[in-house]
Amino acid sequence: MIATIRNHFVVSEGRFGRVLVSFMALGFLALVAAGIAAGWATGRNEAHTRSVNHTYEVELAIGTARRLIEQGEASRRGYLLTGNREYRDAYDRWTVALPDALHRMQLLTRDNPRQVDTLIQLHRDIAALLAQRTRTIAMVDAGQDDAAVASFRGETSVRRMMGIRSAFDRMATEERRLLARRDEAQRASVRAFYAILALAAVLLILVAIASLLTVMRYTRDLAASRDDLRDFNDRLEETVHERTADLSRANEEIQRFAYIVSHDLRSPLVNVMGFTAELAAATAPLGELLDRAEAQCPQIVGEEARLAVREDLPEAIGFIRTSTQKMDRLINAILKLSREGRRVITPEPIDVAAVVDTIAGSMRHLLDERGVALDVARPVPGLVTDRVAIEQILSNLIENATKYLQPGRPGEITVSGEERRDRVIVAVADNGRGIAAADHQRIFDLFRRSGTQDQPGEGIGLAHVRALAYRLGGTIDVDSELGRGSTFRLNLPKTYAQQDSQP
């Protein structure tokens, strides 16, 4: 069920992430489109503004040139009719300003072929008009007023002025046509901009709604999964409590069984050891009897009887004694483990460094005899646990380190400790012969040993250490390499927690 819940979360979370990324991408694209549309519309507005300003400038230039021509014509007529010098001066001013106005019109309309054609014709008509005006002005200046008036009446300036006005009108009409077309293009661009904005807004709204619905659905699924997980945890806790209680009962049964079996085994073992002692005691009279028989009647003593009494029987009794002693030690080890499992754990504050110092004091003769240096890397974090168990664990590890030394190298043992969160790791490192990688786990099994068996022992020490570590809520492991020493690490809770299975 854990795998099912985990897969459900993984699939839902992955799908949720992909959906949200897709919606965010769509929203980003909508914003990008809106930004592009805004930039495009802004550019179009700027272009339209420039076009409108250009049109207004052209119309202003047309109006200025037209006004100068009309004012020049009025000043000329006033000068011809009255001879007043002020009209003459005004005419000169308008005539001088006219070329600049025509030149500005030319610059502003040079990109429009229609305007350029009209402006060419306008230049010809204005040039003819100015030439005629110059002749009549010269007549008045020469005092030929009658001739000047007669020339004015006979000239075609009226038709020419009408043609000039018509040309100005065409140019103004062309600019208004361009302005209307540009206005329509501007309105079309504005409509397109609003359409893009509306589409982007609709897309953003849809993305927001879809994202909201997805989040709501994911939240509902998450809440449902959390409820399922909480229910599963509740059931799991109940199951763990039940299994723990079963294991505790089974462990107690195993301990009682081991105690009963080891106790029952001792009865026949004691009998065997007793009868073996009697047999050993009986070998002395048999030997004496054999000696008298050989002295008095050597012919009745056979070689087989002699070998049986002097060699076979003592050797067999020695083998029996060796086996019974070994069995006695094994039974005692089983009883020790059984009693340790039934002992009540009593937690108390412990100074690990002080415990190591005490152990070193009790083993000083052994350390000095074997030339081993024991060092404590202070400070060592303190523990709240069972003192007896800690002393037994460290004593066993330190004693093993003094046993399995590397020949030709002075022994060094270092005890250190560190705190990791709410646990303390106590390390016992040595520079001894080391342990093969294949034996790193099996050395903790009962009656299992590693390497050359040149030291006394039954293979129960590390099994006892592991059992004690488990009872204290911890673990023990080893890091070792042949010829380079070993490091045993005891991992314990900083504060021992009383277990339900504790008797």
Please provide a written account of the structure.
The chain has 503 residues and is α+β, with helices and mostly antiparallel strands. It has three domains: 2-220, Up-down Bundle (Four Helix Bundle (Hemerythrin (Met), subunit A)), CATH 1.20.120; 249-341; 346-493, Heat Shock Protein 90 (2-Layer Sandwich), CATH 3.30.565. The protein contains ten helices and seven strands. The chain has helices at residues 2-82, 85-108, 113-141, 145-154, 157-296, 303-342, 352-362, 364-370, 387-403, 461-471, and strands at 347-350, 372-376, 383-386, 411-420, 423-430, 475-481, 485-493. Strand 6 (475-481) and strand 7 form a beta hairpin. It is rod-shaped, with a radius of gyration of 60 Å. The relative contact order is 0.06. The model has no long low-confidence stretch (mean pLDDT 78).
Structure characteristics:
503 residues; alpha+beta; Four Helix Bundle (Hemerythrin (Met), subunit A); Heat Shock Protein 90; two-stranded antiparallel sheet; 10 helices; 9% strand; phosphoprotein; EC 2.7.13.3; transmembrane; transmembrane helix
